Amino acid sequence: MIQPLFLQKNDIVAIVSTARKIALKEIQPAIDLLENWGLKVVIGETIGFEENQFAGSDNQRILDFQTMLDNPEIKAIWCARGGYGTVRIIDQLDFTKFKQHPKWVIGYSDITVLHNHIHNFGIETLHATMPLDVKKNTQQALTSLKNSLFGDPISYSISSFKENKKGIASGELVGGNLSILYSLLGSKSSINTDGKILFIEDLDEYLYHIDRMFMNLKRNGYFNNLKGLIVGGMTNMHDNRIPFGKTAIEIISDCISDFNFPVVFNFPAGHLKDNSALFFGRKMNLEVGEKKCLIRFE
């Protein structure tokens, strides 16, 4: 995998929205944060644009993101927020210059579209918090973002959860938002998980949706040659009047019970205040023990 260059002081970071609309005042804490880190900030035209729920029309979002992709002075693109909309523009983006001079693309949730699409070019991306969330993020989440961007080593040690599956694994980390992974199946933005470690998270879904999506990933061979699974926040799950009968963790455990790879539940990443940064496309080592889970990127 190709690793974009780590940032240095005075490098320029662009903030754009590929999905839902967002106002400049909502990203001011993120601008202040980047400037405190010694970075310069360019605000995309989509910040403040509005077309119904989107940050401008599809064409406006395409042009804004394309401008930042092609500008050699921009060293990272930080997506302002998720929502929905990135899939509407992905096939109109030209990644020719980006592939010649890769830069960090940062975000989560709906930005899983970009993570997966770019992964298929053989380029790393950064799954991390977004400008909309900075004001409510934990210091640990923000520090993990900073360390990731500036090339300081990142690793995580968390307490084990009773539903975990113990084991040791190594492989490239891939994944993102479960609903987006599910929606990309069969497209050129879908990823091959063979020999890799998969991360998933989701928000505001019905429990039977989680079951349906995991069953579809299973039927598509997502888990056949997987090395490990990391489950982040499964946040604000819903149930029907007639209960589904299992929690999200129980649904996932049941679906992958036929497989022997190690599994970590409740990893601090996703739609959480403590949204830890993760390198997608980078090889990592995973150790799931009785009391501790260790994640180390190479």
UniProtKB/TrEMBL annotation:
Keyword Nuclease: no
Record's keyword terms, sorted: Carboxypeptidase, Hydrolase, Protease, Serine protease
LD-carboxypeptidase C-terminal domain span: 170-286
Record-annotated active site: S109 (nucleophile), E201 (charge relay system), H271 (charge relay system)
GO molecular function: carboxypeptidase activity; serine-type peptidase activity
Biological-process GO terms, alphabetical: proteolysis
All residue ranges annotated as the LD-carboxypeptidase N-terminal domain in the record: 13-128
Gene3D superfamilies tied to this protein: Class I glutamine amidotransferase-like, LD-carboxypeptidase A C-terminal domain-like
Database matches in PANTHER family: MURAMOYLTETRAPEPTIDE CARBOXYPEPTIDASE, MUREIN TETRAPEPTIDE CARBOXYPEPTIDASE
Family: Belongs to the peptidase S66 family.
Name of the molecule in the record: Muramoyltetrapeptide carboxypeptidase
Naturally occurring in which organism (per UniProt): Lutibacter flavus
